[in-house]
Amino acid sequence: xxxxxxxxxxxxxxxxxRRAQLRKGFEQLDADVITLQETILTDEIDQAAEMLGPSxxxxxxxxxxxxxxxxTTASRWPIARVEELxxxxxxxxxxxxxxxxxxEILAPWGRLWVANHFPDYQVDHERERCLQTGLAxxxxxxxxxxxxxxxxxxxxxxxxxTADSLRFWTGRHxxxxxxxxxxxxxESVRPGEALETYVRANPYFEAGDWPFQGIDHVLVRCGxxxxxxxxxxxxxxxxxxxxxxxxxxxxxxVELGTR
Length: 259
Prior knowledge:
20% of the residues lie in helices and 31% in strands. It is of the alpha+beta class. The protein has a six-stranded mixed beta sheet with strand order 3-4-2-1-12-11. Strands 5-6-7-8-10-9 form a six-stranded mixed beta sheet. The radius of gyration is 17 Å and the shape is globular.
């Protein structure tokens, strides 16, 4: 299966031109599942539908900014259950639509749980990101226990692999007496190569001296022997070419083996 993730940057800048680039790019990527962040959904605009066309089913978050910005998960396979987690867990999370959208996808080989995780972005909110990550991971463990399946977490996680929230996902840290182990797709197939998805080289980058660069991730839950339940075959950066850079983030495309 092919899974893509991208922070789409809403409808900022020249949206008609960016929409054409995104539509063309996603057609070429031919992903089965796509997780999108900063998508606009209002009575007038459905950004994800405009980018992806009619061949995908869409699960849209309800927690959104005043302009309609939130997250979207798209699948070419049937979507069954959809659950959204409230990530407003401290007094500092009220001014941002932080959320986690969990979809149950009926893939050809069986059940696939996909968590489009979009925690707090502020550089001094790693405390919040850890709390939000712990909540998401706990719910995923409950869902897998009730309805077994493979699990993928994908999105703009707003932290690098060295942060506590990502160290938790990858089995290197404990949050609230809970530990899990997911494999970073990038780290798995590109060991030692820096992950850079939010960088000054991007012509749309406006964040100045932002300290975190590798903040977009795809993580695959591991089985009892430490191997991802879906083999990670490849992981490539996308939407990073001079003639195809339609967002202030670069994205990732991951190819996973299936059973």
